[in-house]
Amino acid sequence: MIFLIVVSTFVTPVFSVSWLTKEPTSKKGGYGEAVAGTGDTVYVIHSYSSGQASLRKYYSIQDSWETIIEWTPDTPAPRPKGGTAIAWNNNDYLYIILGAAYTR
Q1: Mean pLDDT of the chain
Q2: Count of other CB atoms within 10 angstroms of residue 58
């Protein structure tokens, strides 16, 4: 299936945008982060150079977060690092590429 978007230079689109304040995630910032939306939910991975990381799920209808997995520096690899990515197949699966890191 191919989607084609046609924009006319003669028509000025009018957009109305309003932002809503929602519950923030308990973790902010990070060495590597990845986000995937799956309809009514959003998955976020936060990872830090310290070796800590977490996978959290946001429920938009309830406006709440759930921690799915937490990794510590003692957790055996693999675990999320910089360059982590998440993809959803529009069905039952999230695919997580854990990224990589280096030491000096």
Answers
A1: 78
A2: 20
Are the C-beta atoms of 94 and 86 separated by less than 8 Å? yes
pTM equals 0.73
Q: How many CB atoms lie within 10 A of CB 53?
A: 26
CB environment 12-25: b (16+ within 10 A), e (fewer): eeeeeeeeeeeeee
* pLDDT tens, position by position, 4-50: 444 444 555 566 777 778 888 776 666 778 889 988 899 998 887 77
Spatial CB neighbours of 92, under 8 Å, sequence gap ≥ 6? none
CA distance 11 to 4: 17
Query: Tell me, what's the pLDDT at 104?
Result: 47
Spatial distance between the Cα atoms of 88 and 49, rounded to a whole number of angstroms: 26
Side chain identity at residue 3, one-letter code? F
* 82 touches 101 (CB < 8 A): yes
